[in-house]
Description:
Layout: H1 10-21, H2 27-38, H3 51-58, H4 62-75, H5 77-81, H6 96-106, H7 119-128, H8 137-146, H9 165-174, E1 184-197, E2 216-229, E3 234-240, H10 245-258, E4 265-269, H11 277-283, H12 286-294, E5 296-300, H13 311-323, H14 330-346, H15 357-363
Parallel strand pairs: 1-4, 4-5
Antiparallel strand pairs: 1-2, 2-3
Amino acid sequence: MEHYKVTLSEQERAELQAIAGKGTHAASKVINALILLNCDQAGGRAERSRTCDIAAMLCVSERKVDRIKKKFVLEGLELTLNRQSAKCEYDLKIDGRLEAQLLALSCSAPPEGQARWSLRLLVNRLVELELIDTVSHETVRRTLKKNELKPWRKVGWVIAPQANAQFVAAMEQVLVPIDAKHPVVCMDETPRQLIRETREPVPAEPGRPERHNYEYERCGVCNVFMASEPVAGRRLSKVTERRTKLDWAEFVQDIAANYPDAERITLVMDNLNTHTPGSLYEAFTPEEAKALWDRFEFVYTPKHGSWLNMAEIEINVMVAQCLSRRIDSIETVRSEVAAWQVRRDHLQAKVNWQFTTKDARVKLKRLYPTTSS
């Protein structure tokens, strides 16, 4: 026995036949019209056409046929033919005032014992402050997304200092035009752990990545020096067992040998306790140390000025492309770094360094100290 029976009037039947007979209507509207026409009790088709037969004939499910019949009986022809019914009205959970309070709360310090705000913490706080009785975390998420706010995220960034003469002096000493006689070379170093696999890794297969055991054996450490002339696309690397004053002095000597025609080399580096002219005198004779020191002009990156040292970018590229795996011997590190350097030099890879002194004096004007005329 059918719970909902479709009985069309002459006007309704004519309207449905017009919709089904013309190809200017949406497919869903035509299907709904055909269902109603085939279910019409007044047309005498109820006994001949059961729901399953109508569904098979129109290539739709029986549930859709029953749903259209029910909708016609309860809501009428107009709402049955159209895909969208009357819009439901919902109470607005977060109005403009509550939205402003939520954004202010999201930008404030999190509760004690919590590192950052989460959606559920925000929901609980809104209820505790009696700003709202109940609200879902999904409603809060949509509000934050609309305002492009994610309080649970934090990124590292270099916060520029206020007007600082030392910072400006070091910056303008680095931002100089290309000059083969006076090259600007950036130098940095990074320690690396030597790690051995305790079990053989499982090779990759189609649909399955390579797998490594979480256990490993530590075999010591090594140090990788990196010198980079970013604009020219040249670099020099060296792997040592330690990073003592002697190791640094010998690497400086290697840099000087790599630029035999340079009159003076500007060497940009961080202010590590080994990066001093005194290290040269501890490694070489006074005559050799003085001759080597005269070939260089040391520039130490000031606080908040690590971006002036482009060797950090080269080291990050080297680690990502070459050393982001477990290597258990310093000899292997040396051979791998040397192969990486040869390939990188062959590609003439450069740092896209387009910032000049002229640009700095305009874009970073606030960093320059004011002088009285």
